[in-house]
Amino acid sequence: MSYTIGQVAQKMGLTAHTLRYYDKEGLLPFVRKSGSGQRVFSEEDLDWLVIIDCLKGTGMQLKDIKQYIDWCQEGNSTLRQRLEMFKKQKSRVEQQMSQLQQYMEKINYKIAWYTEAVANNSIDKAKQNKCLAAERARIFGQPGK
Amino acid sequence: MSYTIGQVAQKMGLTAHTLRYYDKEGLLPFVRKSGSGQRVFSEEDLDWLVIIDCLKGTGMQLKDIKQYIDWCQEGNSTLRQRLEMFKKQKSRVEQQMSQLQQYMEKINYKIAWYTEAVANNSIDKAKQNKCLAAERARIFGQPGK
DNA sequence: ATAAACTCTAGAGTTAACTCTAAGTCAAGA
DNA sequence: TCTTGACTTAGAGTTAACTCTAGAGTTTAT
Fold first, then answer.
1. B59: Cβ–Cβ under 8 A, 6 or more apart, which residues?
2. What contacts B52, CB < 8 A, 6 or more positions away?
């Protein structure tokens, strides 16, 4: 089974424009072209795109993704670099997860705070809530810093 | 206690340039200026910056953060909108977390794969590993799709 | 009191990642 | 066969978020 650029775009949640841009940037050297010059995506190409999406979605820049793709084209001599790259990316993702967790605490605090404020239709009442104040100190740091 | 723009920049891991840019964009209407025109950041201003950082770090655009800041300046009439905003942001963060989790599975698979490939110094050997193939099918989808 | 380090504004420049346009070619259905 | 929609390239334009420069003023430490 093979796919046109439009079908792949839809499957991956991108535009055909974006896919051509990636190709131009050297991220899709594996994609074949038909006799008339149209890109023909294979099942395997979709797997590549899933990995590209994964690296992009975890904050890697296109030029670094290209580095990885280039290593893949070079063969077995770059296996170590590729393994290292994924290990580095893993630790970045772990960082992102713990960062997101901290952001979530702040957001949850704000939701509790505004829920209280909306209930009283006033900011000042929420400010007097002892329970929220304790929560605030825990998440944002001491009041008298 | 109050802080100069440089001190705040260091505390927040930004540059003074960036803080001035945020100010220009209307994100810091609460920051006072000294008689000679220099910005003077209070303890409370740092809390604002922590929230701005939280919203930015969870993918909100500066113009939407400004919307929130504007609502805050408007007083009690916008409490509901602000609560809604944080609830929306919370669900975005939940999405991001589950997305990151899925990316992590793919990265872990790749690490396992490349670890095997490096051990054999060959891609082909890794391809024959049944255990990794099963893992691959689980994470990337069926082979014959 | 003076040098060094910091701050100010206005505005120009940069970067990454698209996003779109033009002008043409190709493929599938009536 | 014709039309409609999808595809092609080259290249220009856009957007968000900085990032930097110039030239002037301010603060701090000796």
1. B92, B96
2. B22, B27, B65, B69
pLDDT, position B91:
98
Domain positions in chain B are 1-74, 90-145
Distance B36 CA to C3 C1' (A): 21
**Nearest amino-acid residue to C16, taking CA and C1':** A61
Q: For B55 and C4, how far is CA from C1' in angstroms?
A: 38
CB contact under 8 A, A106 and B76: no
Per the CB < 8 A criterion, the answer to whether A34 and A44 are in contact is no
Question: If you average pLDDT over residues B52-78, what whole number do you get?
Answer: 97
The series of mean pLDDT values per 10 residues for chain A, 145 residues long, is 97 98 98 97 97 98 98 96 98 98 98 95 85 90 56
Question: Model-level pTM?
Answer: 0.95
Closest to A54 (Cβ–Cβ): which among B58, B107, B111?
B107
User: What class, spelled out in words, does domain A1-74 have in CATH?
Assistant: mainly alpha
Cβ distance of A106 and B50 shorter than 8 Å:
yes
